[in-house]
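Self-study notes.
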Amino acid sequence: MVKTREEVERKFRQIPEDAGQEMIERVKADLKRYAFSPAFLLPVKKPFLTMTKAELREEIDRVLDLDDEYLLKRASGFSDDPQQIRCAQINLLLYYYDLLARLRKDLPEAWDEIHELYEDD
């Protein structure tokens, strides 16, 4: 779990670079067949399944800049610590985007994760 800006930057740099638009659309269509919908604490500004790495950066920056009061209202019941809410949302964004990027690279182990979550009993 990343907790500092440095850890966020390190994890962000480890995420594979963007795939081409055709692959982004193909993976989006494949994931929709599974009804794949990542669970986030807060609304994400752009459609997640077509998000690029640059848009992920923008979303992380947006979360870092969110007002404490807004965070407490939107994630009530999760935590009464706005920083913990920020960290949790950023960790979810990084986790799911890393999975998405690996799916776009057509890595078998990434698809295994999807199959395990959505097909296996």
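Second protein, same conventions, sequence then structure:
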Amino acid sequence: MTKYKDVYWTLPHQKRYFGTTTIGSDNLIRALSEDNKTVMDIYNLITSDPDAKEILKKFIDAGYENFIMKDFVTDNEKGLYRMKSNDKIIFVPRYDLKRVISKELKNKFSKDLEREQEEFEK
């Protein structure tokens, strides 16, 4: 039996979709997106849906791991995205996403380098 992939996923700063899922995978992500859970929180909660995990992994790889997933799966008319930072929720306007994401990715990259350096020195 063939699974139909009817839901197309895009990142806020892109026009082209990067992946597709079934409606069931979409519903799972939407259901778990309540209560201000981040993309990473939801990724860690999903254990049995590889399509959903793959979509969330793309968000994480793009630098959105600390953003509230609900803002990506509901109509976001105001263009504000919420991000958890130091146990606080900050608002990021759509026009500022690229700058914030590049900063997040730079911080993540430098932390990974520091961790590798520490492991190498042991």
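Instructor comment on the second fold: Helices lie at 23-32, 39-45, 50-61, 70-73, 97-121.
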